[in-house]
Design a protein that fits this description.
By secondary structure, the protein is of the alpha/beta class. It has 4 helices and 9 strands; from the N terminus they run βαββββαβαβββα. The protein is elongated. The chain starts with a strand and ends with a helix.
């Protein structure tokens, strides 16, 4: 289960799920989080855009361009907002969209540029992927288990397998 929605987090605490994969939440002392993967944010631009010649970019360089932005419903909205606040830039939001792959589609059609998580799907799209040089940021994904939840042998084996083979520091 990918734990991104509030209802999945609530179901987890009600012991509906044994293990979830999610982003880490602060103030969850009853949950043991083990980092298993990380994901960087990147800028994407149409291939014919003035920024498409860049291999890396300071987010301040996005200021003059319309942006395809995450909607308020997305967990990533707050993250991207914080990055722009950190560099004291108010993005020109042209469209707000829930899903990163839909954002990439809008960018590929020339509606603007965007800050999105890197995903291999971007390689098949008509966009230029640009690394962010500043500000620095990465998102970690975690395997989470309730500290007080009893794991069945098969769940414990899976938990141990993921921890051993995919756990990152």
């Amino acid at each position: 289960v990918l734990c991104l929605e509030q209802r999945e987090r609530n179901g987890y605490k009600d012991e509906k799920y044994d293990i979830v994969f999610c982003t880490k939440r602060e103030n969850e002392p009853d949950i043991h989080f083990i980092p298993v993967s990380k994901q960087d944010l990147v800028v994407i631009a149409p291939k014919n855009h003035p920024l498409s010649g860049h291999e890396s970019i300071n987010l301040k360089e996005l200021a003059p361009y319309p942006q395809i932005y995450f909607s308020q419903a997305s967990d990533l909205r707050g993250i991207v907002d914080n990055l722009f606040q950190k560099i004291q830039v108010k993005p020109q939001i042209a469209y707000e969209i829930d899903e990163d792959i839909v954002i990439a589609g809008f960018v590929s059609k020339g509606f603007g540029v965007a800050v999105v998580p890197y995903m291999t799907d971007l390689l098949r799209m008509d966009v230029k992927i640009i690394q962010i040089s500043y500000p620095d940021w990465e998102r970690k994904f975690y395997m989470a288990a309730l500290k007080t939840h009893h794991m069945t042998p098969v769940v414990k084996n899976f938990y141990d397998y993921v921890t051993t083979n995919y756990g990152i520091l």
